[in-house]
């Protein structure tokens, strides 16, 4: 799996087609998608064109997508994946992930009332995982994994799994290094993908706190960028790569797409990496707020490995 991929969360229809084309033309071979991003049909148009014109072959691409919360019943997994495949214009995925360990009723985009949620009693995570194992057996996806799972939730599905999850995609960057979760996953041969590696500055204002720190403006990140003659974004991408963690920066800008790929050439000394590892600030940009609260049967303990 290519360690560096293109993120597509927040890439609007109208932008993402061009972004995927620029990315593949620049040399990206890994694209991270999800049904809830509501842009897979456009990603699919770009992928089809790139393959039809011979720019790239299917077997050279690594395409990930994710099962949305409203399709966690056993019988809903395969139809959800087939819809994604149809949108992406592909016969199979390389990796399919359970997007969140949170279940909604069918057809719900974002649950707001208690009635729109299922509980773990209604749909145990193991049931959803069984659905994932089946779609893998059917050949609809080569690999299966999860996203936003802590070690307790991973253990829960692994207890009865035939196939262990191969990937856990979580928020990860210098303000949220996730050491405990990375150690747990490594011990069980589960890969880690870092989402929001640049601090996800373009997410909707309703998902941001007023005083939220700006990762790319952090003095340590800025200083390293100066020392290494690269951009702060490249420092942050290189941070994941130095830890052997898959990383999926999102961009819809041609220059930044190219620049992010070139982060693979940025090499830290041990001392420089140490400065990032000891940055002295802890922050989670995606705080899980939309999934918990009075109307939800879930709590933050269902999501995060450790409180910050
Ligand atoms: P844009 O899409 O206009 O390039 P994350 O990957 O953490 O979700 O962050 C995505 C945000 O970071 C987007 O606002 C994206 O803007 C911006 N971004 C992506 N690459 C770079 C870069 N090399 N330099 C500065 N900002 C970047």
Question: In words, what does this structure look like?
Answer:
- It is a single chain.
- The protein is an alpha/beta fold and 308 residues long.
- It is 35% helix and 13% strand.
- The protein is built from 10 helices and 10 strands.
- An 8-stranded parallel beta sheet has the order 1-2-3-4-7-8-9-10. A two-stranded antiparallel ribbon has the order 5-6.
- β3, α3 and β4 form a beta-alpha-beta unit.
- α2 packs across α3 (74-88) and α7 (219-228) crosses α8 (232-242).
- The chain starts with 5 loop residues before the first strand and ends in a 31-residue tail after the last helix.
- The site of adenosine-2'-5'-diphosphate has 18 residues, from α9.
- Adenosine-2'-5'-diphosphate binds at residues 7, 196-202, 231, 233, 249-253, 256, 259-260.
Bound molecules: adenosine-2'-5'-diphosphate
What would the principal axes of the Cα set say about the shape?
A: globular
Cα radius of gyration in angstroms: 19 Å
Q: How much helix is in the residues?
A: 25-40%
Q: Decide which structural class fits the backbone.
A: alpha/beta
Which consecutive residue ranges, at least 5 long each, have pLDDT under 50?
Answer: none
Helical element count? 10
Mean pLDDT: 97
- What are the secondary-structure elements, in order, as H or E? EHEHEHEEEHEHEHEHHEHH
Mind summarizing the main beta sheet? 8 strands, parallel
Strand order across the largest sheet: 1-2-3-4-7-8-9-10
Distance between the termini: 31 Å
Using DSSP, what is the number of strands? 10
Tell me the fraction of residues in β-strands, as a range. 5-15%
């Amino acid at each position: 799996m290519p360690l560096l991929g293109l993120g597509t969360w927040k890439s609007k229809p109208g932008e993402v087609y061009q972004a995927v084309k620029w990315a593949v033309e620049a040399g990206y071979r890994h694209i991270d998608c999800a049904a809830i991003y509501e842009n897979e049909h456009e990603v699919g148009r770009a992928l089809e064109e790139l393959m039809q014109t011979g720019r790239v072959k299917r077997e050279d691409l690594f395409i990930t997508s994710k099962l949305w919360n409203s399709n966690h019943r056993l019988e809903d997994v395969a139809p959800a994946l087939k819809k994604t495949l149809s949108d992406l214009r592909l016969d199979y995925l390389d990796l399919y992930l359970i997007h969140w360990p949170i279940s909604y009723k069918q057809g719900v985009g974002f649950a707001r009332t208690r009635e729109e949620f299922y509980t773990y009693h209604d749909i145990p995570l193991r049931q959803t995982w069984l659905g994932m194992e089946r779609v893998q057996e059917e050949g609809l996806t080569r690999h299966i994994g999860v996203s936003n799972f802590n070690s307790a939730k991973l253990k829960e599905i692994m207890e009865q799994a035939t196939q262990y999850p191969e990937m856990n995609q979580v928020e990860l960057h210098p303000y949220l290094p996730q050491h405990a979760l990375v150690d747990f996953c490594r011990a069980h041969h589960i890969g880690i993908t870092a989402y929001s590696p640049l601090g996800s500055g373009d997410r909707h204002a309703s998902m941001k706190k007023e005083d939220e720190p700006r990762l790319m403006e952090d003095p340590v990140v800025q200083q390293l960028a100066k020392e290494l003659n690269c951009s702060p974004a490249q420092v942050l991408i290189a941070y994941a790569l130095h830890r052997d963690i898959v990383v999926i920066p999102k961009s819809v800008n041609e220059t930044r797409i190219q620049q992010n790929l070139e982060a693979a050439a940025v090499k830290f000394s041990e001392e420089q990496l140490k400065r990032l590892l000891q940055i002295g600030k802890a922050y989670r940009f995606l705080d899980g707020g939309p999934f918990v609260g009075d109307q939800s049967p879930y709590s933050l303990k269902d999501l995060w490995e450790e409180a910050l």
